[in-house]
């Protein structure tokens, strides 16, 4: 029995390490996509689009291993919470990477056009998303529900910045209809970042559930 438990613990540890690696990859894609926007670099955007598949494959591998452990190991309550949380977190990380890809596709359309406005709020949104992601991953690694809960305040800041971007871009579009298509792409980028922050908040909620057994929404 001890050997079986040790093998199960090793499998769990490997899964958790892959979740952390997946989180790092997803965060990197979002950062590189926003950097490509800042530099109007279509080539860098194409690289982000291509590399989203790496995160997709890692998610599928994690899902397959979780299902096999659930089917073969008959985990106890605490282990079951860890396994279901790993699966849920990997889904949110896969979607996080998708938002990086979405930003990169907007960059591809914007790359050869004059900027609508200086980029101030969008990079700040991305910075907050990265800070949230790091906090969520650390909370996951350290089984720290208090740390997970604390990051929800930054999600509110991301929402506020998205609203500010929306108001400014509406003003630009009203003053000069020629900016509409470019402004809509920038608004799409802001929406991708807002949704990315929501997915990180989901991860924090799963960390709290994994440790305490309580599943609740942080931002309602």
Could you list some keywords that capture this structure?
elongated; Methane Monooxygenase Hydroxylase, Chain G, domain 1; 220 residues; mainly alpha; single chain
CATH architectural grouping: Up-down Bundle
Give the proportion of residues in helices: over 70%
| Class based on secondary structure composition and strand pairing | mainly alpha
- How far apart the termini lie comes to 44 Å
Q: Largest beta sheet, briefly? A: none
**Count of alpha/pi helices:** 7
Mean pLDDT: 91
CA-atom Rg in angstroms: 19 Å
Count of strand segments:
0
Shape: elongated
At the fourth level of CATH, the homologous superfamily is Phosphate transport system protein phou homolog 2, domain 2
- The tally of domains stands at 1
Uncertain segments are: none
The CATH class turns out to be Mainly Alpha
- Order of helical and strand elements: HHHHHHH
The third-level CATH topology is: Methane Monooxygenase Hydroxylase, Chain G, domain 1
Beta-strand content estimate: under 5%
């Amino acid at each position: 029995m001890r050997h079986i438990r040790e093998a199960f613990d090793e499998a769990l540890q490997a899964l958790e390490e892959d979740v952390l690696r997946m989180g790092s990859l997803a965060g990197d894609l979002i950062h590189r996509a926003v950097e490509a926007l800042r530099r109007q670099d279509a080539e860098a955007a194409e690289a982000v689009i291509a590399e989203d598949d790496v995160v997709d494959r890692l998610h599928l591998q994690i899902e397959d291993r979780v299902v096999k452990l659930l089917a073969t190991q008959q985990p106890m309550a605490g282990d079951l919470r860890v396994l279901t949380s790993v699966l849920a977190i990997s889904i949110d990380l896969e979607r996080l990477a998708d938002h990086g890809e979405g930003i990169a596709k907007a960059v591809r359309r914007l790359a050869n056009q004059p900027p609508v406005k200086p980029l101030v709020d969008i990079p700040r949104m991305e910075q907050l998303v990265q800070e949230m992601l790091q906090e969520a991953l650390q909370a996951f690694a350290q089984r720290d529900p208090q740390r997970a809960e604390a990051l929800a305040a930054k999600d509110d800041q991301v929402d506020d910045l998205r609203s500010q971007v929306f108001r400014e871009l509406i003003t630009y579009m009203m003053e000069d209809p020629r900016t509409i298509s470019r402004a809509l792409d920038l608004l799409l980028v802001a929406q991708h970042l807002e949704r990315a922050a929501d997915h990180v908040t989901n991860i924090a909620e799963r960390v709290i559930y994994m440790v305490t057994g309580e599943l609740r929404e942080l931002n309602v």
